[in-house]
Amino acid sequence: MDYLASILIIGLGATAVMDLWGFIRKQVLGIAAPDYRLVGRWIGYMAHGRFRHESITASPPVTREGQIGWIAHYLIGIGFAAVLIGTWGLAWAKQPTLGPAFAVGIGTVAAPFLLMQPGMGAGIAASRTPRPNAARIQSLITHGMFGLGLYIAGWLTKLMYWA
C-alpha cells in the first residue's frame, strides 16, 4: 500500500505542479497552456483504430474529449511517478532527492516528442510546427517542471507518511 499511495500522491502532485506552471506561463508570458482536449481527441480516435492524424485540430471532435484528455494527462503523470518509484524504490519517497525526479521529468519529454506529437500531426519533436525549436524548448521546460513537481510531491509524501 505504501508504494501505491506514494505513486498516486507523487503522480497527482507532480502533474498539478506541471499544470500550475502552464497557468503561470500563460498569465506571465502569454504562452498558451497545453490543450488536453486535443490529447482526448487523439485518444478517442484510437478506439476506432486511428492512431495518426495529419493535424489533430482538423479532425472532428470526439465526445467528451476534454474529460478524456484531462484524465489521461493525470493517469500518465501517475504512470511516470510509478517509473520513478519503480526505479529508485520507496526509499526515494522516504528521502526525495532532486536528481532522480528531474531525470524522470526530463525523460518524460520522450512521450510527446516520439509518440504524441507525431500521432497528432506535429511530427517528431514538433518538426512540422511553425516554430519547432520554440515548441521543443517549451516541452523541455514543461517536463522539467514535472520533474520539479515529482520532487515537491515526494517531499509532501515524506511529510505525510514518514515524517
Description of the structure:
The chain is mainly α. The chain has one domain (2-161). The chain has seven helices and no strands.
Q: How many discrete structural domains?
A: 1
Give the amount of beta strand, in percent. under 5%
Number of strands: 0
Principal-axes shape call:
globular
The helicity comes to over 70%
Radius of gyration from the CA trace?
16 Å
| Arithmetic mean pLDDT | 96
Which class best fits the helix and strand makeup?
A: mainly alpha
Spatial gap, N to C terminus: 17 Å
Oligomerization status of the protein chains: single chain
The major pleated sheet works out as: none
Provide a brief overview of the structure.
Helix content is 72%, strand content 0%. The protein is mainly alpha-helical and 163 residues long. Helix 3 crosses helix 5.
